[in-house]
Amino acid sequence: MCLGIPGRIVEITDAHRMTAMADVSGVKREVNVACVAEGDPAALVGRWALIHVGFAMALIDEAEAAATLEALRHLGEAQETLEQIAEGARALS
Amino acid sequence: MALRGDRVTLAHGGGGSAMRDLIEELFTGVFEPDGMEDQARLEAGALAEPGARLAFTTDSFVVSPVEFPGGDIGTLAVNGTVNDLAVGGARPLWLSAAFIIEEGTDFALLRRIVASMKREAERAGVRIVTGDTKVVGRGAADRVFVTTSGVGVIRPGRDIAAVHIRPGDVAIVNGVLGDHGACILAARGDLALSSDLQSDCAGLGHLMDAILAAAPGTKAARDCTRGGLASALNEMAEAAGVGIEIEETALPLRDEVKGTCELLGLDPLYLANEGRLVVFVPEVQAEAALAAMRAIETGTGATVIGRATEGPAGQVTMRTLIGGSRIVDMLVGEQLPRIC
Amino acid sequence: MRYVEEFRDPAAAKALIGRIGEVAEAIGATREGPVRIMEICGGHTHAIFRYGLDRLVHEGIEFIHGPGCPVCVLPMARVDEAVEIAERPGVIFTSFGDAMRVPGTKKSLLQAKAEGADIRTVYSPLDALELARRQPDREVVFFGLGFETTTPSTALTIQQAAREEIGNFTVFCNHITVPPPIKVLLDDPHMLLDGFIGPGHVSMVIGTHPYDFIPRDYGKPIVVAGFEPLDLLQSVLMVLEQIRDGRAEVQNQYGRVVPEHGNPVSLAAIADVYEPRPSFAWRGLGEIDASGLSIRPAYAAWDAEAKFGIGYGARRAREVAEPEGTRCAEVMTGRMKPTGCAMFGTACTPETPLGALMVSSEGACAAYWQYGGRRGPEAAE
Hints:
The complex is a heterotrimer of chains A (93), B (340) and C (381).
Chain A: E1 5-14, E2 19-24, E3 27-32, E4 48-52, E5 55-59, H1 62-92
Antiparallel strand pairs in A: 1-2, 1-4, 2-3, 4-5
Chain B: H1 17-31, H2 45-48, E1 53-61, E2 67-68, E3 71-72, H3 73-87, E4 91-102, H4 107-124, E5 127-136, E6 144-154, E7 170-173, H5 179-188, E8 193-194, H6 205-214, E9 220-223, H7 228-240, E10 243-247, H8 255-264, E11 277-281, H9 286-294, E12 303-309, E13 316-319, E14 325-327
Parallel strand pairs in B: 4-5, 10-13
Antiparallel strand pairs in B: 1-6, 2-3, 4-6, 7-11, 7-12, 9-11, 10-12, 13-14
Chain C: H1 10-27, E1 35-41, H2 42-51, H3 53-56, E2 61-68, H4 76-86, E3 91-95, H5 109-114, E4 119-121, H6 125-134, E5 139-146, H7 151-163, E6 169-175, H8 179-187, E7 195-198, H9 200-206, H10 213-218, E8 222-224, H11 229-245, E9 250-252, H12 264-273, E10 274-276, E11 279-282, E12 286-289, E13 293-295, H13 304-308, H14 328-332, H15 364-370
Parallel strand pairs in C: 1-2, 1-7, 3-4, 3-5, 5-6, 7-8, 8-9
Antiparallel strand pairs in C: 10-13, 11-12
């Protein structure tokens, strides 16, 4: 249900049938882009999409991805600081 | 040359002159140009040394497609048996090759397969000394099936076997995993995947020689064919009665293999390899083994992936890339692409 | 692998695990009195065990494995019908790999294949359609399984088949929807749940609003999660923080893929091709209203149920008893762990599965066996 993998759309193979070639780490597979094409599918070339059973089902929102990673990075730094404080407190007690 | 036509017919399997012509031109003429008896008669010198042991193995090859990027059924047939002998600590000497050929198969295809076998045999330093040919009706075989049996010699005093593995022994593989399995999946065509992946099929006899020279305390080795690295490790853990722990971050994998696995929901640990082994060496000899492996063409990607442990006997576990732990079990049935 | 490996960073995972621990402590979650979080989607169950997350997070967190495994909830009768279609002469029966080993009352699709039926694994319904194009003299049937993630793919494929007037392609539709079984579980007074991890790829199609009823009517938090370890860990943290703060909301952790309002093209295709069945049988949950989809009459020519006179509409109350001693229903709905079933590891193993939970890669029993190394029934904790 859930097996989806990000792939980059590298070329449109049939604009009428809405098919394109997606590249997943060097492995290419033709996918249907009807779910993510708004108008001319050519605009999709270079975009990243979530691929599931041969369909590009959602475009990866690069800003959202960056925001999530940023939040995780901050959390990591905050956590590290907290742990250093805790360790410092332990050393003193 | 008396061979007529361009493809195999049932007449070529009839035992008569057509068959004789096929065998002589396509097989024995290539493998043993000086002539081949029905039974190979071989000097037993190497085997006669006191304490030497005969190693003997057999394997059948049914791969589809018969030709694929990086090899063909012939490459597999020679290297598969050579490797079986080599990982047992034997020096491979002689192979037999039996062919079951589907009616209608092109001579040109057979020539390519036999040329592959000749080339790989020369590389491995073995001779193909006897064989057999049968022809079956259309549909009764998938173009050609090959069975190779191999004989080798294990020199006196050498005993490489999984049962010798002890906790602390280090596990090393000779390169990236899963290339062959992923390549075949793509080559079959029914999943409509394309990539530059090639099979990793290769003979490992020279690699084993190098390992055993540099690390004389080597405990055991196994080639990671059907069922992949995971199956080999499970068998070894079971035989030795030890646990094995591997590190997910240490597993060498090509991007394309990762991509294939992620797309299809497969686990690279179970993908077949045809030129990969896992070897267990005592910890103190690990550096030496690695250096020796990396100096050989088939070992440039050698890397440590884990070690034997005191853990539950027969159990293989993996420390996941985020620091968790999971069991790496024996494969049940065949890995099928999944969507969930 | 972009957008994948960044979400597997070990250092970030460690930080998240640390933070989860702190919040779990603050809530007062303990091993004996845990916070019970249900991951609805089978793909999340698989990921939790594949990465060992269940043992990495604070011991006061208990993952309750939900029914979001479409193979696990497929009634045996439907497998029998699939086999029946596959065994008809001239049929090429195509299926995702997931369904091939699920036992029916007599056999699985894989066993039927061994007995001579032309059954093939495909990666995409589009590949099944292509097969129909290439083999016009054969009847190609596609086993349409799955929740809303997969439903648009078969809908779009049927629309394509209709456009091209392909006459030898049908879909055996067994698509189901996520919200109804969640409601069933929430209405069950025996289910004690503190929060949910919502299915990331189902939500990619339906958006996040279909889950509004969970906080609104039941006061439980739900966080829609991605599938990488950092996604799951971050989502667990978000659920815990809601609990700590006394909030109950729908949150979207998987914003890089999940749009709030879902995918319009997918939703339109589903609405065009499918209609809800009045009710549908779920293995382990019984009949649930408006939880399954059937193909609309306008597309009857591509409906395997219509073409073969088979299936849910045609042969209603065919009750198939569960194999004796199995507790699939309880395990699937999170009321019991796999190790609580006496058949686990005894009569029911991956080699001799009695139920779909041991066969499906998303099934809790398969995960416990394969990744968790549990090999037999254990005394209740």
